[in-house]
Amino acid sequence: MNPRLYPLAATVAIFLVACFLCWLQFPYMLSTRVAGNLLTDNAYLGIVAVGMTVVILSGGIDLSVGSVIAFSGVFIAVVLRDTSLHPLLVFALLLAITTAFGAGMGALIHHLAMPAFIVTLAGMFLARGAGYMLTIESVPIQHPFYDLIQDAYWLMPGKGRFTLIGALMLASVLAGMILVHRTRFGASVFALGGGEATARLMGVRVARTTVGIYAFSGFMAGLAGIVFSVYTGSGYPLATVGTELTAIAAVVIGGTLLTGGAGYVFGTLVGVLTMGLIQTYLVFDGSLSSWWTKIVIGALLLLFILLQKGLLRLSSGRGAAA
Amino acid sequence: MLKTLLATAAILAVPAMAAAQTVGFAQIGSESGWRAAETTLTRQQAEERGIDLRFSDAQQRQENQIAAIRSFIAQGVDAILLAPVVATGWDSVLEEAKDAEIPVVLLDRRVDSSEDLYLTAVGSDLEHEGEVAGQWLVDEVAGEDCRVVELQGTTGSSPAILRKSGFEKAIEGHDNIEIVRSQTGDFTRSRGKQVMESFLQAENGGAEICALYAHNDDMAVGAIQAIKEAGLNPGEDILVVSIDAVPDIFKAMAEGDANATVELTPNMAGPAFDALAAYWKDGTQPAKFIQTESKLYTAADDPMAEYEARKDLGY
């Protein structure tokens, strides 16, 4: 097997073992209901994590996404409350804003040669602040179109609900897989993750790719914001604090190298589902503190970082031998 | 055939279910001592009634609470207790619970969803709390002139607004009682002390203040310290009445530094379980709002015993 596939294989194996352990204790956890819940409850996280995967594959980081999700929810709620625009139009407007916001951060990162960490940190504060400027309260969204999409689900056998937002998450993952593994842009992202100088030598248009990467992440954060607003039916400027870190954790547990250059979008989906599974298990058990989610995720992160270091040593050792 | 089987299963299951009902509790988190006490008391109440309680701490995040409720529904619990972190955004998950015929009881806070989506809400009437405190002062001073200073909660928060209006309602028509100064102490001990210091300076070293009304006990405890530092005797020179009934105010009361407190009970689960028991038994629909008792405690109520009873609840 290609050693590059090891982290992905480990991710999938951990997920399957976790499913098995859950099933041993609570047989009902392997039901369509729980599966449907996993997809619905983690839809926004899965979507934003796809964007984050692309950023991390390029060797960057985007700390602004949690705030952008909150801003999106507030923006939608306030615009729908104060105007009579159709939600679809508001969605398009919002996605244009968040994509431009991401592109702007990408341009700053490239042209000022600033660390992505600093620029997106500023973006995080900006987006959160902008959300507060719009409202400091939680604003309910009452629009017939929202009722329609909230009730859009397919009742699976066993009463599980396969919701529209869950389907949108799976579609995003699929789109991300095609973009990263099957297009020229994707190849440039991987090249950039291997190092900017090498990428330049390979003929990658670095400026364009960098702007594209952060624009994509901004777009996905906007999309996640839309999904989150459907999920909660409201906009709240305090929502999704720290979600950027959860998304990064999902990407790493999904087997993507934190330093960039190697990873799979599919792994990220499995990473998101693994984290959701831990949360579900804790609720099913009902006696453990929910902070165990964080402990288990921390342990998994550590495991994957060690695994990646080990793989790196393995491959560089082989390179030296050759 | 399937229907008969299910019906038989249901009949067979009834005695077993009566022995151990499963209730899921979606708690906000543990941001304050009061909330920690609420969690402890909910666990105790469940244990006393032989209810199997599944507890989930949402760490202040609505998405975690929604996910927890979905998992409770998937598990097929017999009821769900929810202390909602915000008022909005619960419609779809409450509808799912309704579809699954699982009753939901709201604790402490309310939601803006339609009333038929939950069984009942248990909570305190904040304005009534202020009234009880005001009424105590009216009875205590019995017609004598009294200049009151007020420590408000966080500006604009609903407890601050309602505890203020409740108190004003109670002293209405009693011209001997007058609120002369009123400022926010942000519900904290340190701000309570600071603001009380400025009150004392402004009111001739405190000689012209007859009573202090604080919107919560923490501010009162801070203010008591300020009164002592000004060389006055809290509880005698200046009467102290506040709201919440946290352990520390009972300690102050036992030492004669505070006079009265109105309880905001953390035992919201007790009335909730009672309502659920009736509902499970014969489908009794409770009222849509169950008001918890706002009990008045004074030095006559053995404050030391109250302190002992409360200090281990997690406040």
TrEMBL record, chain A:
Domain of life of the organism encoding this protein: Bacteria
GO cellular component entries: plasma membrane
Q: Where in the cell is it found?
A: Cell membrane
GO MF assignments: transmembrane transporter activity
Q: Where is it predominantly found? A: membrane
InterPro entries xrefs:
ABC_transp_permease
Q: Which UniProt keywords apply?
A: Cell membrane, Membrane, Transmembrane, Transmembrane helix
Instruction: Give the residue spans that cross the bilayer.
Output: 6-31, 43-76, 88-109, 116-136, 162-180, 211-232, 238-258, 265-284, 290-307
Q: List the PANTHER family.
A: ABC TRANSPORTER PERMEASE PROTEIN YPHD-RELATED-RELATED, INNER MEMBRANE ABC TRANSPORTER PERMEASE PROTEIN YJFF
Show the NCBIfam families listed in the entry.
PRK11618.1
Q: What is this protein called?
A: Monosaccharide ABC transporter membrane protein, CUT2 family
Q: Which organism is it from?
A: Albimonas pacifica
TrEMBL record, chain B:
Q: What Gene3D superfamilies does this protein map onto? A: 3.40.50.2300
- Signal peptide range equals 1-18
A single MF term (Gene Ontology)? carbohydrate binding
* Location(s), subcellular: Cell envelope
Q: What keywords were assigned to this record?
A: Signal
Q: Can you cite an annotated GO cellular component?
A: cell envelope
Organism's domain of life?
Answer: Bacteria
- Domain Periplasmic binding protein, residue spans: 27-279
Q: Which SUPFAM superfamilies match?
A: Periplasmic binding protein-like I
The answer to keyword Membrane applying to this record is: no
- Belongs to which family? Belongs to the bacterial solute-binding protein 2 family.
- What is the protein name stated in its UniProt record? Monosaccharide ABC transporter substrate-binding protein, CUT2 family
Q: Which organism is it from?
A: Albimonas pacifica
